[in-house]
């Protein structure tokens, strides 16, 4: 027996012997998880797609001032409206972390010392506008959680200021957007989680028939999801737009693990009492499901490794890895002890020795001594304390029937298999008998899919990731329309070096402006040189002392926009409504303008800010999807090779996954699903997630093949009959769980939901349709090679 099988058999013995203690451990972990879940924070917008960057951090600490913009429409020059603005201004000026508030009321009060009662006097200062702007500017370097209370206070201040009826007030800006998006992410996470659970209940109720406690797997998975919330809280992984997609995925994957445990336990109960069934079930199904779980984790790990520059995807991968590990654990420590207790309850309540009545044709009653053993719940170890060897799982071989058990039944002729299972078995046998035709069709479809993948659209604009009817986004669009673009078209260049106030540096800024404005998509440049010329009659002083005298005359609040802590800040104005390609072109143009204008020695100029850094990192993620897929395949192949130490067993489970990677492009083209940065990671995830189905089918194939007199086609048919129904049920329940994503309010998650639903279905088809002929072909090829080079020791299975 392999070491991993012995380990899982021992785990089965311990759970069977101590189910209550196991559940207490699960409960303790659950209580601990609540403490971690309370520590989860949210990160939204471009910040979620921007990696740590020293220059960006310096810019954020010195110049990146978040703000709230208030758009006032209506009778702006009405004294009542202006007094409301003044009240709003005065209240927000006292809020913590607010640097200053700028409003039309300031200009009027500067002129008259108060808000006059005469509208004519106000018009002499402001003119006759029908809209006005109030800007609440924050201290630099605030995090999103620190900005959100300011937005909350602004909402209260707007009500307290009592704007007159008929005046429309819109509060928008970075903090407003972040706050509303954070709330929506939390709501979306809860809704998707609820939908996934509900859909899973429906799926298990109608698909997982023929077993008792068929809804129990959803309880185990939900506990695993709660464990995951706790884990990411303790690990400091924030919730983001993409992270909320993880939990329906985890429910889908976790159901797989629990359904496989549950189904195999029920199968073993046909020929063994409960105290033997659980260790035997875990010894048989535990290793392949464990390896499949590790494969899924490595698929997410490939996403983690390949997206280091994009935090949102790293958080998605980290949360997913925590999730698959913990939902697997929950299947062991929640599902199995409950099944054990239920078996004992039925035995004592109805005089049964197991979950199946003797009239059902299940296992026969053991000796009186064995029955007593079963009744007291003690483990069935040998006298020396070691678990007895079970031929049914030792070395993947199935030995002779155990004394007192009906072990000689046809494995394809069981009531639990049903017509569907038998149909799967016959179909798999037919396909395996014609491998050339099946594999040729699969390869042709895969090639067509790879060709179709080159023409798929992409989704890379972060504003397209979010609901287009989000109130903060609608308000932001209105603000942009009223201001001609607002802050959304401003990009930032930060200067590092000494003597940034030297006339030579200021003259270089003028050169940079001339070069940059001549480039496409660049509309203007606002630099310290612009500020100095404004306060010095349009000229730059000849000496640094002269520059210092000019800057001394500039109000401190205004000067802080250009100089802070030894750094200088240049703002580059871009064209409005740029596409992703145009944004990338703009970023390139600014970089070339910096290089061409040749900054003075000792001065380093760099375009920075989340708006400049986020788009390239997202596009890189999309363009590197083949690298991510290749990395996932390599990691999972390494895992399978290390576990099986047999090339055929490492390759066979991956062949159907290659087919699916190609097929999924045809599916995306048919449904017009664009390639998003989240969908770009699906190739690696497909291999990781789908490996579970192929590994389980392959494991059962070799188990059945080891039976005396069994041919390859017999093994294929029995494997598909016995586990085909189980993986079909778990696959369809996974589809139900993933389908919750299609109802997400976030377009990027909805598209990912449609994509994953299709891919999981294709994976299931590939596992049942293309793996059997693949196994027959590779197994036959291996036999011929071994025959050619001699078979000394070759027939043994070296799986650890």
Automatic annotation (TrEMBL):
<feature type="transmembrane region" description="Helical">
    <location>
        <begin position="723"/>
        <end position="746"/>
    </location>
</feature>
<feature type="transmembrane region" description="Helical">
    <location>
        <begin position="627"/>
        <end position="644"/>
    </location>
</feature>
<feature type="domain" description="SSD">
    <location>
        <begin position="626"/>
        <end position="777"/>
    </location>
</feature>
<dbReference type="InterPro" id="IPR050545">
    <property type="entry name" value="Mycobact_MmpL"/>
</dbReference>
<feature type="transmembrane region" description="Helical">
    <location>
        <begin position="651"/>
        <end position="670"/>
    </location>
</feature>
<feature type="domain" description="SSD">
    <location>
        <begin position="213"/>
        <end position="341"/>
    </location>
</feature>
<feature type="transmembrane region" description="Helical">
    <location>
        <begin position="215"/>
        <end position="235"/>
    </location>
</feature>
<dbReference type="Pfam" id="PF03176">
    <property type="entry name" value="MMPL"/>
</dbReference>
<feature type="transmembrane region" description="Helical">
    <location>
        <begin position="241"/>
        <end position="259"/>
    </location>
</feature>
<dbReference type="GO" id="GO:0005886">
    <property type="term" value="C:plasma membrane"/>
</dbReference>
<dbReference type="InterPro" id="IPR004869">
    <property type="entry name" value="MMPL_dom"/>
</dbReference>
<keyword id="KW-1133">Transmembrane helix</keyword>
<dbReference type="InterPro" id="IPR000731">
    <property type="entry name" value="SSD"/>
</dbReference>
<feature type="transmembrane region" description="Helical">
    <location>
        <begin position="752"/>
        <end position="778"/>
    </location>
</feature>
<keyword id="KW-1003">Cell membrane</keyword>
<keyword id="KW-0812">Transmembrane</keyword>
<feature type="transmembrane region" description="Helical">
    <location>
        <begin position="192"/>
        <end position="208"/>
    </location>
</feature>
<feature type="transmembrane region" description="Helical">
    <location>
        <begin position="682"/>
        <end position="702"/>
    </location>
</feature>
<feature type="compositionally biased region" description="Acidic residues">
    <location>
        <begin position="372"/>
        <end position="383"/>
    </location>
</feature>
<protein>
    <submittedName>
        <fullName>RND family transporter</fullName>
    </submittedName>
</protein>
<keyword id="KW-0472">Membrane</keyword>
<feature type="transmembrane region" description="Helical">
    <location>
        <begin position="431"/>
        <end position="450"/>
    </location>
</feature>
<feature type="region of interest" description="Disordered">
    <location>
        <begin position="365"/>
        <end position="417"/>
    </location>
</feature>
<feature type="transmembrane region" description="Helical">
    <location>
        <begin position="280"/>
        <end position="306"/>
    </location>
</feature>
<feature type="transmembrane region" description="Helical">
    <location>
        <begin position="312"/>
        <end position="339"/>
    </location>
</feature>
């Amino acid at each position: 027996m392999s070491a991993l099988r012995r380990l899982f058999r021992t785990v089965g013995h311990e759970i069977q012997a101590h189910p209550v203690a196991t559940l207490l451990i699960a409960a303790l972990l659950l209580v601990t998880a609540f403490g971690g879940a309370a520590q989860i924070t949210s990160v939204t917008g471009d910040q979620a797609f921007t990696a740590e960057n020293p220059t960006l951090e310096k810019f954020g600490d010195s110049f990146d001032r978040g703000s709230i913009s208030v758009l006032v429409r209506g009778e702006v020059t009405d004294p009542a409206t202006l007094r409301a603005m003044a009240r709003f201004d005065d209240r927000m000026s006292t809020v913590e972390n607010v640097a200053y508030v700028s409003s039309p009321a300031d200009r009027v009060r500067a002129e008259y010392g108060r808000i006059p009662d005469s509208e004519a006097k106000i018009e002499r200062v402001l003119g006759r506008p029908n809209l006005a702007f109030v800007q609440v500017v924050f201290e630099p370097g605030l995090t999103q959680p620190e900005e959100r209370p300011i937005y909350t206070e602004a909402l209260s201040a707007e009500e307290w200021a009592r704007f007159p009826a008929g005046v429309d007030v819109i509060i928008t800006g970075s903090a407003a957007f972040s706050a509303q998006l954070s709330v929506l992410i939390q709501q979306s996470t809860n809704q998707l989680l609820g939908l996934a659970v509900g859909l899973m209940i429906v799926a298990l109720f109608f698909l997982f028939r023929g077993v008792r406690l068929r809804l129990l797997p959803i309880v185990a998975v939900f506990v695993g999801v709660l464990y995951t919330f706790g884990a990411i809280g303790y690990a400091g992984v924030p919730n983001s737009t993409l992270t909320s997609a993880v939990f329906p995925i985890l429910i889908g994957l976790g159901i797989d693990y629990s359904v496989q445990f549950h189904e195999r336990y029920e199968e073993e109960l046909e020929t063994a009492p409960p105290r033997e069934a659980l260790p035997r079930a875990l010894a048989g199904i535990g290793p392949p499901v464990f390896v499949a779980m590790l494969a899924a984790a490595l698929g997410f790990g490939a996403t983690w490794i390949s997206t280091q520059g994009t935090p949102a995807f790293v958080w998605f991968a980290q949360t997913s890895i925590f999730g698959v590990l913990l939902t697997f654990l929950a299947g062991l420590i929640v599902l199995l002890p409950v099944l054990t207790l239920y078996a004992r309850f039925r035995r004592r309540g109805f005089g049964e020795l197991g979950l199946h009545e003797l009239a059902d044709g299940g296992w026969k009653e053991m000796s009186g001594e064995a029955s007593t053993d079963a009744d007291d719940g003690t483990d069935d170890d040998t006298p020396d304390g070691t678990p007895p060897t079970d031929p049914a799982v030792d070395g993947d071989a199935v030995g002779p029937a155990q004394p007192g058990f009906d072990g000689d039944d046809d494995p394809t002729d069981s009531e639990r298999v049903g017509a569907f299972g038998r149909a799967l078995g016959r179909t798999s046998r037919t396909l395996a008998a014609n491998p050339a035709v099946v594999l040729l069709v699969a390869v042709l479809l895969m090639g067509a899919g790879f060709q179709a993948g080159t023409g798929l659209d992409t989704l890379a604009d972060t504003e397209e990731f979010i609901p287009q009817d989000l109130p903060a986004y609608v308000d932001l669009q209105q603000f942009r329309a009223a201001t001609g673009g607002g802050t959304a078209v401003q990009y930032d260049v930060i200067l590092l070096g000494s003597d940034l106030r030297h006339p030579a540096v200021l003259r270089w800024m003028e050169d940079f402006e001339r070069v940059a404005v001549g480039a496409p998509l660049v509309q203007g440049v606002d630099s310290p040189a612009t500020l100095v010329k404004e306060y010095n009659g349009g000229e730059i002083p000849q000496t640094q002392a002269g520059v210092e005298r000019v800057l001394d005359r500039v109000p401190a609040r205004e000067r802080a926009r250009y100089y802070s802590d030894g750094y200088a800040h240049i703002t580059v104005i871009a064209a409005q409504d740029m596409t992703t390609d145009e944004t990338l072109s703009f970023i390139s143009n600014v970089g070339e303008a910096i290089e061409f204008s040749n900054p003075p020695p000792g001065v380093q100029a760099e375009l920075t800010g989340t708006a400049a850094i986020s788009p390239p990192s997202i596009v890189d993620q999309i363009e590197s999807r083949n690298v991510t897929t290749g990395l996932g395949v390599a990691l999972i192949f390494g895992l399978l090779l290390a576990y099986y130490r047999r090339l055929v067993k490492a390759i066979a489970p991956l062949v159907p996954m290659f087919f699916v990677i190609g097929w999924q492009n045809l599916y995306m083209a048919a449904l017009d699903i664009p390639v998003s940065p989240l969908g770009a990671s699906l190739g690696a995830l497909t291999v990781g997630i789908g490996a579970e189905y192929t590994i389980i089918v392959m494991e059962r194939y070799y188990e059945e093949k080891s039976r005396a007199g069994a041919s390859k086609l017999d093994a294929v048919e029995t494997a598909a009959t016995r586990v085909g129904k189980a993986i079909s049920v778990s696959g369809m329940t996974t589809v139900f769980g993933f389908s919750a994503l299609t109802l997400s309010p976030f377009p990027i998650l909805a598209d990912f939901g449609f994509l994953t639903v299709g891919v999981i279905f294709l994976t299931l088809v590939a596992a049942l349709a293309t793996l059997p002929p693949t196994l027959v072909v590779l197994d036959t090829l291996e036999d011929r090679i071994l025959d050619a080079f001699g078979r000394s020791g070759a027939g043994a299975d070296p799986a650890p």
